[in-house]
Inverse folding.
């Protein structure tokens, strides 16, 4: 996982910081997606991540409140 994270970080860093400084006909340009994806992909991943974390926290809160209600009913 560390190697994958290192590769992704290096790829994204070169994509966002180095490619805008190179000419459009440079051979390195063909290894990367268009620059607008450098913003779209992280934003979409962030939205998905926040949604998943929020859903998990919400489900845990609902389950704990249901357990508290059941505990009060039993007493």
């Amino acid at each position: 996982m560390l190697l994958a994270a290192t590769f992704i970080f290096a790829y994204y860093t070169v994509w966002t910081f180095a490619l805008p400084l190179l000419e459009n006909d440079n051979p390195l340009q063909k290894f990367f997606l268009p620059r607008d994806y450098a913003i779209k992909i992280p934003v979409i991943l962030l939205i998905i991540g926040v949604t998943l974390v929020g859903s998990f926290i919400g489900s845990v809160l609902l389950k704990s409140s249901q357990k508290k209600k059941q505990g009060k009913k039993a007493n």
Notes: The chain has two helices and no strands. The chain has a mean pLDDT of 91. The two ends are 49 Å apart (CA to CA).
